[in-house]
Every structure is written in structure tokens, then in C-alpha cells.
Design goal:
alpha/beta, Rossmann fold, six-stranded parallel sheet, Lambda_DNA-bd_dom_sf, transcription regulation, DNA-binding transcription factor activity
Amino acid sequence: MNPFKQAKTRDIAEAAGVSTATVSRVFSRHPYVSEEIRQKVLEIARKLHYAPTITSSRYLIGVMMRSIDEGILFNPYHNQLLHHVSQELFRRGFNIRIFGENQLPYLHKHSFAGVILTDSTVAEEIRESGIPVLLVNRIIPGMHSIVTDHREGIALAVRHLLENGHRRIGLLRLTDNWGSNERESGFRSALKQMGVEPDSSLIIQYKEADDPVRIVQQLWTFRPTAVIAEGETVGVPLNYAFYRLGIKVPEELSVITFEDPMNSQYMTPPQTTVFQNFAVLGQAVAETIADLCASEFRWPKVPECRVLNCSQLIERKSVRNIRSGVLADKGKS
């Protein structure tokens, strides 16, 4: 087929060996289509780069964020989450629209099958509209949500540092953030489980707009031997702060951040990180919002919170064993 020619439903029907009516039923998520036929039609549609014209709210999922600006495209968290959610929703025949809180009237003006909320603060207002809503990495009582087990994720980092002799472990965490609160709880709990009392002077809250040099300088005053910095956007500014302050990693300070696929492995030294598996998270989000949109009768009577254990530690070159004095991590340089 000519790659510049727009595929039509009859092209898909011919390739799949079904009627155009069946193709239409697949994209309208009609219940009387077998799963085998549905997957076959969707696979051919992907190969032909076909996208259905949105004429019904049954196709459309809204993704609302607190704000939309140029920086959102470079935010590792939102970038990865949106990529995997959208890919899975497209595979299921949905389309998405991304908008910010200041565009809330857009939500009421258009019909949406459902809405995914990442960091929005208007969840209750949207719920009152009667649209199926799914929260991601945030919990509000009475609403459906999918969250990563942040406590276990940061516990991986804590245990790795403890195994390498560290006891004075700092935590740099974002302010006013559900996930950050969970990570601090997991941080404190993991230390206590290993017989180490958390030192509150080594736990520092920051905002993304704060000067990283000032934040690291504040932490360095209390002389930790290691630090965990949570948030996928912190690795680069943290690396800059260490350079400005002359702090050698990992000789003077061992460091674990959260995985930024575009940057973490290219730092000096390459950073050991906690990786939140966005492919797993994205698939779960897409599956759940699709189910919530399918029929109001399929909604659980009690809203569910699904917790995913999808974090892993990626060892590189930023952690030192302070007992032996040698590099602890086994990762590639």
C-alpha cells in the first residue's frame, strides 16, 4: 500500500478478511466481536497506520495534568508515563487528548469516555461530572487509582546502601507530593528494619525550582556518607551541584537517584538508580481506564486502589562500599 495514502476501513477489512461493519464494531468496542478478530483487526490497523476519526466519546480518553508547558516534554516521569499509556490505549483503539487544569472547560465542552489524572488537583470536581476517573500515583479516598509501591522502591536503595556499610544516609525529597510522602515513609521504615534510627536532619525537602547547590550544601553540612534523591528530574541538577561544591562521587558521597533514561547512565560517574517500570505502569493504567469506560456496570461498587510492585535497582558507579573502600556497584561504566 502507498505509505502516503490514508488507510480506510475497507483496506483493513480486506486485509483481515472481515466485513467493514466488523471493523467498525472493533473500533466502537462493540461487545459482539471475538477477542481473536478484535486483535487481528487492531494489528492490521497498526501496520497500515490507520487511526479512526473521532466521532464518538467512546474513543476518547482525556489525560489531565496540573499544567502544560514546554518543560513537560522533557520531564522524564511524564514523558515515559504518557508514552506507555498512549501506546497501550492506541493499541486498544482509543485516542487521547492531553490538557492542563487551566483548560478544564475543554473537558466539559467535549465528551470523554474517561479521564486519567496524573498530578491534577481538580479530581473531585471532575468526579462530580460523572466521567470515569483514574488517578495515577496518587490516592484520594473514594476514587479509583493505580500507584507504584514507592515504599518498596526506595527500600531497594536503602538496603543497597546499608549492605555497603552506610549508616548516615540522607534523603532529598520533593515537597507536597503523595509519592514523596510514601517514599519518605519507606525510607524511614527500611532504616528502622535494619536497626538504624533515621536522622531527620538528613531529610531535606525541596522544590524543583530550588537551587540544587544550596540544597546539597545544606545536606553536606551534616556530613552524610550517602544520599538518596527521589524524583526522576533531580539527577542532572544534583550532578551539577556536586561539581560546583567539589564533592567527589562516590569517594566522598555515595549517591542513588531515580532513573532518567536519557541522562542517568551518562553522568560522571554513571548514577545508580531506582527504576520505576513505566511500561508496566502504563499498561496497567490503560487497561484499567478502558475497563472503567466499558460499562458503568463493570465498576466495582467500592473504588479500588491497585498497587504495583514494579521498581528495580540499577547498579552503576555512584555507590562505594565504605567498609572495603572499593566501588560497590557492578554496573557498566
